[in-house]
Amino acid sequence: MKLFRKIAYTAASLLFVVSCDIKDDIPYPIVHGQITEFEVEGQCGADGTSNYSTSIDKEARKITLYVCDTVNLSKLRITKINVAGTTYNPDVNYVDVPEIIPDSLYCEDFGNFPRHSFSSLQKGQNTQVDFRHPVRFIVRTYQDYHWTVNVSQVVNREIEVDNQIGNAVIDPHLCNAIIYVKSDQSLKRLKVKKFTLGGEHGTISPDPTECDTYDFFKVRQFNVVTGWGERQTWNVAVHQTDEVIQTTATAFARNHSVTISGNKPNGVTPVIEYKASGESAWKTVDAKEIELKATTYSTTIEGLKESTDFSYKVTAGDSKVEEQTFRTAARQELPNGSFDEWSTDASNAKLFNPWAQGGTSFWDTGNRGATTVGNSNSVPTDDTSTGSGKAAYLESKWIVIKFAAGNIFTGTYLKTDGTNGVLGFGRPFTAFPTKLSFDYRYRSEEITKVGDDAYSYLMGRPDSCNIYVALWHIAEGEHEEFQGEKYPLIIRTKPGMEQNLFHPDDPRVIAYGQFTEGRTIDNWTSETIDIKYKNTELAPTHILVVASSSKYGDFFTGGVGSTLVLDNMKLIYD
Known about the structure:
This protein is mainly β and 574 residues long.
């Protein structure tokens, strides 16, 4: 980069000497500084589990992630950063690597922070950053690109006492907590069941749970040491109230299960009963299957019949919820999941479409883009797993000027932008499948084409096919629109800041599953993808299924000749 700038500066100076009227019109190349990976120590999911991923919004240049309660946010160590944008100038044999510059205000050792991509640290390097606030990073190529990293710490604080009314009001910033109990509960002799003000890995002194009862007649102070070692002094007050917690209940039904949850009086285990429509006998949920907190409860009942009406009722001491109803979801199949139905375009015989002639599309391919300069690379074949019908034959090709992976997806190919596609991803869908099954064969070729420098390390390695399924919950106003039609996501494969691709960590994605294979599989093989639900409180509104003969085809990277043959795709409902 420095050499290029020197050349540009020298050329501009010489031109200025020759004539003051001649301007320096030599532009720097546009090389977008994209952060592709960012990880820190103690990283976790938004729910505190170890199942995590980093949310990277390339368009807004914003990164969001979560950490557990064992790390110190003020001195959080970054463990990995990968940045795309490396360029090579063959004329001068010079490689420009993007520079990473953290905000010196929050960087503990600015001078020893690594200035380039890293997945491990060298001796003397220090990546500790104060992430108690959003932190700016500059990715410097020929231009400066400003990124913002937001880190949230998941600290589960919980208080539970006898005769509690509602959940405790906990303020971690002021280190204050207020507990409400029944008006006849003695404040001098209060039984404390849970008291985790320091989080799951913190400690507290004195610990009121170690006593038979504890005196809360006046505000009490507790010394807390958090899981990351910070010492805090908490003030805890208990107040009596005449308010009464009434039992409530809501049912969230899926295809073969339902979650019943609500409020309840403290210290009471609710009795939950249910029955199918038309049955006379009620079934009672085992008390061991009910998750209890101070004044809330939750249970999940499995093994229910789909598309069926059920009744349920909840009793908690003297408080009860009278009979209510829910209906389990109906299953939905993938239209043309056998890939038997294909047609050709009336105006373009080279264009194959994965739907019947004159029929309605559910699937689409990138063929419309491929056939602008060549032939379809996603086509029907008589080589099927069942010996009849058709299958989808997806082949990665070099089409005149660009690498194109064979692909098929649920959605619509919207238009071609230059040599790049604009795709509407997703179809309406409201069921709760647990697996995706399919039959496949795959031929893996050596990766010889790389369209993004961030994937240059894959050159020479075996190509991989990729199949994934995602369920979205798209609220009103969260759609993207193209010519009056709404889609959960509009994909733009054009490199640079215009690019917009699917990310499984999108908070609107409530369930996801993926399959990747990097070996040649000559014989027809059956495979199943588990669909894992990240959010069990929202119902799906759309489904996305994508299959590609080259995993990194979105980045125009893969092996010419890699071929995925796909048949008999079905959703499974356990």
